[in-house]
Write a structure and sequence with these properties.
The structure holds 2 protein chains of 2 kinds. Chain A has 16 helices and 18 strands. Chain A is of the alpha+beta class. Among the domains of chain A are: 89 residues, Alpha-Beta Plaits; 170 residues, no CATH class; 119 residues, no CATH class. In chain A, the strands form 6 sheets. In chain A, strands 1, 2, 3, 9, 10 and 11 form a 6-stranded antiparallel β-sheet that branches. Chain A has a 4-stranded antiparallel β-sheet with strand order 6-7-5-8, with helices on one face. In chain A, helix 8 packs across helix 10 and helix 11 packs across helix 14. The radius of gyration of chain A is 38 Å and the shape is extended. Chain B is an all-alpha fold. Chain B has a domain of 61 residues. In chain B, 89% of the residues lie in helices and 0% in strands. The longest helix of chain B has 44 residues. The interface between A and B is medium-sized, with 23 and 17 residues.
């Protein structure tokens, strides 16, 4: 918790004949993050070379490529298939027996389909060639077959009279004018010269016979027939896909596993007789991995955990969170994975994000809709990240319902017979009860901001204390303390001169000094606040003087938390407006005086209700989600979080469709 | 002249009218606060949003960060909203 998983650097050395069992065992464990060997003559690795693939690698990858080509051809993706795991041995036999047949079938179909596609494109091209000649009232076979005459056609900017005897047809178009000329071949140069003046663009004369219209219709009919045939082939491919989907995805998984294993030695360092693999394993798994490697090679292996050098090694980072916080990792990965040595704030987001979301939306009705969405969308959103997001939405919706009860809100209405606990967000107070407690809510959100940012700065001090060394470490920790001191100094100074609800007030303290000229009284709190601000600025400037220009962000970041109330209130306002329009403007007047038009009015009212609340739900998800996560990313993380950790990507796979 | 006219106008205004016009002024102020800050946010997000969409088109992994950068200027309109709410309800 709050720290990534501890990793140990493992060095494995064995003779080459043990390579296959070692690789298989590592793959089976799915724990070993291979540190790739790069042939740059690193110290201790003189004379080593990058390994070569295990036997059978090229056949396996060729098979894998075939399978992928097939899954592509039938547009199949593993996420669409819900199949149980099948036995690898059976699958192996099936691959040898059935795969070539299936491949031939699919290939035949796809080749035929692409041939038909090409033919259809050719015909379309022919139609495009004939189309300009549609306006010329001449059969197409009259354009060619002359010995002494030449036919040319093309677009010109305006009508022209050629200086030679010729047969010409000019048709005026909207943008371009089309011209067909038949002339004596001897006078070609004169004709070309004259045509150049009117910007002649040549068009090929189609080698066809019959009327242009008839030819186009004929080709269109052929294209339609081709398309029908293509459709039939697509249907056949669809049948293949449905029949063999689970077999294909299982094949792909099995072959992928085998290819990855056979190619693993490419990442190892090898000599003629031995190989060395380095990588990372979670510290608590080192013994298990070591023991099983020793067991599988009957002791003919050397495995040792190397000391980690946090300065130079880039340790892969694997989250280490309790189950309920795991879905939030997706929000961390969007920003950046934590570094190995810093605090992993996933747990804090997992708790605070839903609270912020609930505080912003705070409506039982919307909460229930979100809950239904997070459960219902699971069928459509496949893949790990999608499921994690939906779990985050589920947690947020539970918190929304909780705050909805506190604020007594249901789709913008007050919950009948239930008054808001603590503070109300109801903007209209005609139906009894008091109006919105905006100032109190604002101050509450500012308190949340102060607490969140103070936590952020404290974490920043901790991170710097852990990560930095020597003089810089002291400076960095003190600078973080300085930021805290300035923030609290400003807060103290404000408390000493203004009374704010829900906050302590030091305005009553005796005045100790008066600023000359202004008549501004300084009491103990003001003076302490001033000293804190000054000391803080000095600490910040000692680390980096340029940081001082960032000082105003203290105020803006704290005030930024006011969005928790402001965005929420805007949502409440939209919901209330929608309800007001629906009931006060349409449905209630219609019911008072019921006529035929009333039905129309009621329908319009219901439409507004549905559309308005749909819009508000979308805005609430966007607003609630984005603003809560932004408060983390921008306001909270900038105080302590660096990120940039390397993803822990162990050698192995989570099998879905195959068994070992 | 103008001063006389103002005095004359104030003379004819009753207390209710004055409070009513104050409420109206507050509403105008709140509207201006939200509207102008909204424009400010829009202008600021314009460039960021365009760049973010470009980056996402190149590489889909930028979606999260792009979205994040795009909403950073939202703070401006939030301040406007806060000021508006305080004007109306404080």
């Amino acid at each position: 918790m709050l720290k990534p998983k501890r990793m140990s650097r493992l060095l494995i050395a064995a003779s080459r004949d043990q390579m296959a069992p070692v690789v298989a065992e590592l793959y089976h464990h799915n724990l070993f993050h291979i540190e790739e060997y790069v042939d740059v003559g690193a110290e201790g690795y003189e004379g080593f070379k990058i390994g070569s693939p295990l036997s059978g690698a090229s056949e396996k990858s060729a098979d894998l490529i075939k399978i992928r080509a097939m899954t592509n051809a039938v547009s199949l993706s593993a996420d669409d298939v819900d199949a149980g795991p099948s036995c690898s041995l059976e699958l192996q036999i099936k691959i040898e027996r059935e795969l070539p047949l299936l491949e031939r079938e699919v290939e035949e179909l796809t080749v035929r389909r692409s041939k038909l596609d090409t033919r259809a494109k050719e015909l379309e091209q022919k139609i495009a060639e004939i189309t300009p000649f549609l306006d010329v009232p001449v059969d197409l076979n009259l354009y060619h077959g002359y010995k002494r005459f030449t036919t040319i056609a093309g677009y010109v900017s305006r009508e022209i009279v050629l200086p030679v005897p010729c047969e010409m047809h000019f048709s005026k178009g909207k943008e371009k004018n089309f011209l067909v000329v038949v002339f004596s071949t001897e006078q070609r140069s004169e004709v070309e010269k004259a045509l150049q003046e009117v910007g002649f663009q040549s068009v090929p004369v189609p080698d066809e016979s019959g009327s242009p219209k008839g030819r186009i219709e004929f080709y269109k009919g052929e294209i339609a027939a081709l398309n029908k045939e293509i459709e039939g082939i697509s249907k056949q491919l669809e049948n293949v896909r449905q029949k063999h989907a689970s077999f294909l995805v299982a094949c792909e998984e099995l072959l992928k596993a085998e290819v990855e294993q056979t190619e693993a030695p490419l990442r190892f360092a090898t000599t003629k007789q031995t190989f060395v693999a380095e990588g990372w394993v979670p510290t608590d798994q080192v013994t298990a991995v070591t023991n099983s490697l020793v067991h599988v090679t009957e002791g003919k292996i050397f495995v040792t955990a190397l000391p980690t050098d946090l300065e130079h090694d880039s340790v892969p980072v694997e989250y280490n969170n309790p189950d309920f916080a795991k879905p939030t990792q997706v929000l961390m990965d969007v920003y950046s994975r934590p570094g190995y040595t810093e605090i992993d704030p996933t747990l804090m987001i997992a708790i605070v994000f839903p609270l912020f979301f609930g505080l912003i939306v705070g409506d039982v009705g919307y909460g229930l809709i979100f809950l239904a969405m997070s459960l219902g969308l699971r069928k459509f959103l496949k893949g790990e990240a999608g499921e994690q997001l939906l779990t985050v939405l589920r947690n947020a919706s539970i918190s929304t319902i909780f705050f909805g009860i506190i604020f007594s809100e249901f789709l913008g209405f007050a919950i009948p017979g239930w008054n808001p606990v603590l503070y109300s967000r109801h903007l209209m107070s005609e139906h009894g009860g008091h109006g919105p407690n905006i100032p109190e809510l604002m101050v509450l959100s500012i308190w949340i901001g102060i607490a969140h940012l103070t936590l952020g700065r404290l974490l920043g001090m901790y991170n710097h204390a852990k990560q930095d060394h020597g003089h810089h470490r002291t400076l960095a920790v003190m600078a973080n303390f300085g930021w805290l001191a300035v923030m609290w100094g400003i807060i103290l100074a404000i408390w000493s001169c203004a009374a704010i609800p829900l906050m302590p007030s030091f305005t009553g303290l005796p005045v100790l000094a008066i600023v000359p000229g202004v008549g501004f009284g300084l009491n103990l709190a003001t003076i302490i606040g001033g000293i804190l601000i000054l000391a803080g600025i000095i600490f910040i400037a000692r680390e980096n003087i340029l940081e001082v220009i960032e000082l105003p962000t203290i105020v803006s970041h704290v005030l930024s938390y006011a969005r928790l109330v402001a965005v929420g209130l805007s949502g409440v306002a939209i919901a209330m407006v929608v309800n007001y329009m629906t009931f006060e403007m349409f449905i209630n007047p219609a019911l008072e005086n019921f006529t035929l038009i009333s039905i129309v009015l009621i329908l319009i009212g219901l439409g507004i209700f549905l559309f308005g609340h749909l819009l508000n739900i979308a805005l609430c998800i966007l607003g609630g989600g984005l603003h809560s996560i932004r408060l983390h990313y921008v306001e909270f993380f900038t105080k302590f979080y660096k990120g940039g950790g390397k993803k822990y990507n162990p050698f192995g796979m989570k099998r879905r469709f195959t068994e070992e | 002249m103008a001063a006389e006219a103002v005095i004359a106008a104030v003379d004819v205004m009753s207390i209710e009218q004055i409070t009513a016009s104050q409420v109206g002024m507050k509403a105008i102020g709140a509207g201006l606060a939200v509207g102008l800050t909204g424009i400010g946010t829009g202008v600021a997000e314009m460039g960021i949003g365009a760049a973010a969409v470009g980056a996402i088109a190149e590489n889909k992994d930028f979606f999260g960060l792009g979205l994040l950068f795009t909403v950073i200027p939202e703070t401006i309109v939030i301040f406007g909203l806060v000021v508006g709410l305080l004007l109306l309800f404080l």
